[in-house]
Amino acid sequence: MEFYDIREIKSTSLSLTLENGKLEKPKYEKFRGKSFRVLKNKSWGFFSGMVSDEEGLERAERNCIEEGDVEIDRRSFEGDYTFKPKISTADIEQKVNLLKEVEKLLKNEFVVSTRINYIENIREFIYRNSEGSEIRYEIPRTGIAMQAVGKDDTLQFLSKRIFKPGGFEIVSGNEPFEMAEELSNKLEELVRAHKPPSGKMPVLMDPSLGGVFIHEAFGHAVEADHLIRGASILKETGIRVGPEELNVYDDPLKEEFGFFPFDDEGVKAEKKTVIEKGIFKEFLHSRETAIKLKGKPGNSRSQGVMEPIIRMSNTYIDEGDYSFDELVESVKNGVYLIGTRGGETNPATGYFHFNAQYGYLIINGEIREMIRDVSLSGHTLEILKDIKIGKEVKFEPGFCGKSGQLVPVSDGAPPTVVNALVGGA
Amino acid sequence: MDFRIDVEAAKKYLDFSADAWEIFHEIELKKTLKIEKGRITHITEDVEEIVAFRVISNERVGFSCTTDGDRLIDTCEKAIKISKISEEVLKEFPEGGVTEVKGILSKKVLDEISGEGEWLRGAANRMIEIAKDRKVNPADGLIELSFTKTEIVNSSGAELESEETATSAFIECVYEDGAAYDLSFSRDLNVDIERISKNASHFAIQYSKGGKIEPGTYNTILSPLAVHQLLFYSLYPAFYYENVKKGRSPLADKLGEKIAGSVDIVDDGTADGLIASSGFDDEGNCTSRTVLVNSGVLSDFLRDWRNAVDSGKEPTGNGIRLERNSYPSTLPTNMIVLPEERENDFGNGIYIHSLTGAHTSNPVSGDFSLECSCILHTDEGEKPVRSAMIYGNVYELMKKIAYGGKESLQIENTSSPWLKFEGVDVRG
Which of A21, A323, B286, B395 has the most CB within a 10 Å radius? Predict the structure, then answer.
């Protein structure tokens, strides 16, 4: 064989769900898995299962079925890293009490249902390969997701979440309480909110929506595996995609939900410049695509012990110069959209679509009535051309799905304005 | 294939340590062939075995699971510990039972999984060839075979075991700046390679030529794939009794009322050979055939074990684990959509092959606005449309069902023909 690598993942997790004030479906999980990857005849073979290294490599080698053309970046690393949480021990009762206190703030006369989910996970990653790499790291991740359903003119829901690398300190401050209060207040407005306008118009996006926007509208097209397959609207770097003030990065070393010190191919993580001064600078790469396209590896990730594929980490639009008031003024007549229910893109065609949780009409440069169920769509190569960028980047955590695998990511942005197709029910 | 983890010691431990217990034990072997840019690239093979425990102590339920056979007793202890803070109330687990379901285990699939991949390579090459014949790039594709063995035992006396196989195929084709994909599912090796490769090629070419559409109201035909994408996220959750009970279902007070046009919707975990059929659900209850919508009238909801106990009704066999490591909760089995049938000619209107962003629909209100590529059929002929957005409310949409095709396809857990809806709002 020309190359092999062996990964072992050990993780423990706790999930506590408070449904309408009652602790339901508490769950503890201990996962252990191994995976083996072999390069032979310039073709990959892969096996995952709890077997000895010898058996795993042999079964992976059997799956190298074709003569291929795979070359790989063979850089090698050693490292042992533990992300130390500030609070590593908290009683389970303390966690349940926190959820119950937060839930009190979620309720109001319009709220018919609440759900709060506490999740903690510790992931230990062990990697070695035929080039001599030896890596081990451990990362705890902790967070709370909350959702409330309200009923008046319509049945509506809102959700918010905090997830970051770290221990109980991530959720033990004021943030969950402030989120619950805000969510409850907004839901009271949302159940009586108007239907949105439709058509192409200027859209002011809050940071959480702006983050998902850059992830969906541009980020997926930057994953080099799409380009290798001939299925990316982005064919080359060096092209202008936005104005001079637009800078976009993917940074796995930022201590947000998508943090990792080494990727799942054992490559040391580093910040990637996706767009600099409006010019598309680099694709995100695996060991394989990095060689083919003369890029840097380090963005291969996997769910559990599944096969690593190219993924984003913490992807964000860097801050610009516009104040929030200037952005509102620049919209004049359009919409201000807040929060996200996720999105989807097709990197081959460049068309993307995502939903806000709610928004407001902007009329004559003033923020006015609330609107509900608003979606946005557009095209990767068009959407960034006239972007206006505000100040203060904020990150929103989430799980990104690709090829049947979910990985933790975060998306960030300051408030931004784009022209997009807005729609709603 | 046999289990590798022995759960006997865990049973004995739980007999002494918990008032009631359940062990869900599953092993899956999966073999996947991958295609990139018109070439077979490689095969991946995954074996995953998991043991999940639910325990009841003082009528409170705790749950834990592990893939580590050396940590079974530790994991049992964690389930018991966690039950002490739980407020989920259950007195016992079901005695369980098995419904006879045919066509869910295929020897051919088993042989192929343990073999050299001859059928896999033949099917993949055929899929590639069909696309290449149409001058289209089969950019991404896979064919996946799986075998699953499941065992459920509990302190109420259930001792159940099942073996199932499944095959799925996916292809995405790219032509210039148009792209389209399609999928096929089967319990045997008869996934419809020809259909999906032809469809993905055809729609990729069409969309590359796509123009604009005038905003307005159109008769709209959803393909079986688009039916699944829309209904899975915006409609199905409203049928779960748990959502009804917790105020999250707009159908909560609609039993006996007309909620749709002339259509039946049936949850059927017993249908022979379908992809979500099984003799028992993931809690050991018999699967069943539950008519949810009868000629447009809402007639029932879906119940797992706990929600059956809460509602005082029989479980419908819908206690499903979304993932192998998930706590069982109410989820659908095969959702069979049966409209008024017409000949396979849907007339004029826009035909939507697939939707983008269906998971962003509002599961609580049923509102949706989704991006799609589509083909406008008029008396003058076909006109491809590059980008359009359909929008509305799924409950209003269901009232607009006019009729459907004769041939049903299974996409994930939805079995449906194409459906024609009258007067759907579309924006260009």
Answer: B286
CB within 8 Å: A348 and B368: no
**Residue A92 host element (H or E):** helix A92-106
ipTM rounded to 2 decimals: 0.93
Answer positive or negative: Cα dihedral of A59, A63, A67, A70: negative
Which of A24, A29, A199 has its CB closest to that of B65? A29
Model pLDDT for residues A382-420, shown as the tens digit of each residue: 899 999 999 999 999 999 999 999 999 999 999 999 999
What are the sequence ranges of the domains in chain A?
Answer: 10-28+74-190, 199-424
Kindly indicate the confidence band of residue A220, based on its pLDDT and cuts at 50, 70 and 90: very high
Residue B159 CB partners (closer than 8 Å, separation 6+): B152, B153
AA identity, residue A76: S
pLDDT in tens, A345-357: 889 888 888 899 9
Which residue from B36, B43, B69 is facing A45, i.e. has the nearest CB?
Answer: B43
List Cβ neighbours of A277 (8 Å cut-off, separation of 6 or more): A244, A245, A246, A247
In chain B, where the domains are located: 8-202, 210-428
Residue B362's contacts (CB-CB under 8 Å, 6 or more residues apart) are: A156, A157, A341, A373, A425, B234, B368
Whether domain A10-28+74-190 has CATH 3.30.2290.10: the reply is yes
pTM for this structure?
A: 0.94
Span between the terminal Cα atoms of chain A, in Å: 56
Considering the domain B8-202 in this protein, what is its CATH number?
Answer: 3.30.2290.10
Interface touch B371/A96, C-beta < 8 Å: no
Query: Tokens in use for B80?
Result: 């018991």
